């Protein structure tokens, strides 16, 4: 897979990280800022509120609640995960990494922090480290977002030039969560490179059933239809690519491809 897809991958990872944060907040809106009589419960409530404020980009209040949480338990892995997310949102990357590592030192089985750390490493371009951390995440059979973890594991593998392992991870992600769209398009790209065109078309069709068209999916569709000799379909997909994503790198590739005459 073209390494120029890195920016697309990074946007995807950021979205996945944010979705996990939102998942954590499903109960956050129901808690009050009062700590109650249980220090452990108060600690967790303030952390949840802090995560809520991080998600809404209100970093000042997030910091206030993290500080309050630390007053009840300053050695909480969840607290350090919260601080890591806060500093990451502020692009204080050294501090973010320090807190991720501190969280995992406190509780090496805290999968959420490890997932967030792996995504952080991916966004920093540290693919081998991201791959190692996410491999550990996928081994937690109880983790509710193993599909997303396998997806990021696959992206890391592809970026390291191991497309076969990447494909295995994408296939595992689709098995765990058939309604999760991103792994299908990545698998379709690899199948196409392997000249397994029927499988590429099948994976792309699954993606299109679950997601709106993207520049990547349309450009792949052009190439697949061309391989099957469906020139009209290829041209139609190319026109969609040009109209919907005129400034995408995929459209530039498509325009260059047209000039080569390989579609004829």
List keywords for this structure.
disordered N terminus, Serine Threonine Protein Phosphatase 5, Tetratricopeptide repeat, mainly alpha, 0% strand, 264 residues
Please summarize what this structure is:
The chain is mainly α and 264 residues long. 74% of the residues lie in helices and 0% in strands.
What would you report as the Rg, rounded to the nearest angstrom?
Answer: 21 Å
Helix content: over 70%
- What fraction of the residues are assigned to beta strands by DSSP? under 5%
Report the structural category.
mainly alpha
What is the number of beta strands? 0
Any idea how many domains? 1
Structural write-up:
With 264 residues, this protein is an all-alpha fold. The chain has one domain (3-211): Serine Threonine Protein Phosphatase 5, Tetratricopeptide repeat (Alpha Horseshoe). Helices cover 74% and strands 0% of the residues. Helix 2 (39-55) packs antiparallel against helix 3, helix 3 runs antiparallel to helix 4 (77-89) and helix 12 packs antiparallel against helix 13 (231-244). The longest helix has 19 residues, at 6-24. The two termini are 24 Å apart. Mean pLDDT is 88; it is low at 1-6 and 22-35.
